Amino acid sequence: MAIPVVRPIATLAVILLLLDTGPAPAAEPFCPESAVKIVVPFPPGGPTDITARLLGERLRQRFGQNVIVEARPGGAGSIGTAYVAQQPGNGCTILLAYDTHAVNPAIYSLPFDTIAAFKPVTLIGTIPNTLAVHVSQPWKTFDELIADAKKTELVYATGSNAGVAHFAMKLIEQMYGVQLRHVPYKGGAPAAQDLFGGHVPMMMGSVMALSPGFRRARRARCCRPGSSGIRSFPTRRP
After folding, report:
1. Fewer Cβ in 10 A, N or C end of the chain?
2. What integer best gives the mean pLDDT of the chain?
3. Angle ∠(49,55,57) on CA atoms, nearest 5
């Protein structure tokens, strides 16, 4: 899953300079009259928020510029995105977009034109999704999970409605002839917390959001078809 950075259309050249990673002389503050604001359209603690904070620290070190990371969750990312679309095109406000940035225009009536209001600046990184189940669940393989889903309607969580994780689960439903009940959250972090607490039996989400339950608390495990797993994570597969 790709995490791009986008910004108001008028600031393309400025942001490209801001993110240049080549050799450069001592840089002056990019926004001398205010801090640079990176807007995350999802709750704190999720993969987009973590990425934004890492990016913000590098920008602060490079330019000596104050960088603020501000979470504006809700509406599957559309609330924070709408906020950035309304800001001046001076390069001081950056949106760290996620999968819903591409999906939302096809689903919701948005108060802005995604193509006209924003242009991509750079790809920050990619994050794989995985299906994780709480350790209390009886499924030892993906096949066992599907067999159970054919008998009863199982519940799963994702970090948003109509995101890539939601679409992935819909694809599983179509491929295996099952019907699952979707519980969308306002971000991957709160969904993962409910998975770790056993409030939902399984979740499709990014490995960044799910890794605390895999590595430390051992409250969840991967459950995915195929032969490839995710290094260092406990996995259950056929």
Report:
1. C
2. 79
3. 105
- For CA atoms 55, 57, 61, 65, give the dihedral sign: positive
Task: Please give the residue range of the domain that contains residue 138.
Answer: 129-236
Integer distance in angstroms from the first to the last C-alpha of the chain?
24
pLDDT > 50? residue 9: no
Distance of alpha carbon 149 from alpha carbon 145, whole angstroms: 6
d(CA 235, CA 226): 11
pLDDT, residue 83, reads 93
Half-sphere exposure of 233 (CA within 13 A, CB side): 29
Q: In angstroms, rounded to a whole number, what is the distance separating the alpha carbons of residues 229 and 52? A: 27
CATH of the domain at 70: 3.40.190.150
Strand-strand pairing, 2-8 and 93-96: antiparallel
Give CA angle at 98 (128, 132), nearest 5°.
35
Most confident among 31-40, 118-127, 167-176 (mean pLDDT) = 167-176
Cβ count near 117 (within 10 Å) = 21
pLDDT value, residue 92: 86
Q: pLDDT tens digits, residue range 143-152?
A: 899 999 999 9
User: Where residue 226 sits, what CATH number does that domain have?
Assistant: 3.40.190.10
Q: How is 54-117 classified by DSSP, letter by letter?
A: HHHHHHHHHH---EEEEE---GGGHHHHHHHHTS-SSSSEEEE--THHHHHHHHS--SS-HHHH
In this structure, the answer to whether residues 188 and 117 fall within a common structural domain is no
Question: What whole-number distance in Å separates Cα of residue 118 and Cα of residue 120?
Answer: 7
